[in-house]
Amino acid sequence: MVVAWRPSKNELLGCQALCPLTTGGFPDLLPRLPWPVPWRPLPGAVDHGDPLPVRASLDRLSRALGAPGADSLAQVFDRWEALVGPDVAAHARPTLLAGGRLVVAVDHPAWATQLRWLGPALLARLATELGAQAPTRLEVKTRM
Description:
Elements: H1 9-18, H2 54-64, H3 70-78, H4 80-84, H5 86-89, E1 92-98, E2 101-106, H6 109-130, E3 137-142
Parallel strand pairs: 2-3
Antiparallel strand pairs: 1-2
């Protein structure tokens, strides 16, 4: 979507007081500007017709960056507590889902060990939830 902005007549008249160095100020431009200003796309811009929903834009962007679609990202990041349980979610959070891997940051090495032990079950659960876009590898990083 391309947005064009043109100042209104009042804005141009107000600028005259701010621009004393210009001879005659901006009012001499007013007769030459069409009012109201018609919208037209910028030269060379591709017109995709109607605006896209945000979800479609995020989906296209996430896929371009090598991540699964926006729906898959939302299922993992928004439903993290439901996927791993409240005890694990209090100490671990997903940080990256891309290229077939899920990176999870934990706050203590003991939780890293626990999450690595739960890894196969978590990946299996993600496979049932996400299907073909599910990660196949789990990486656990400790942040302290």
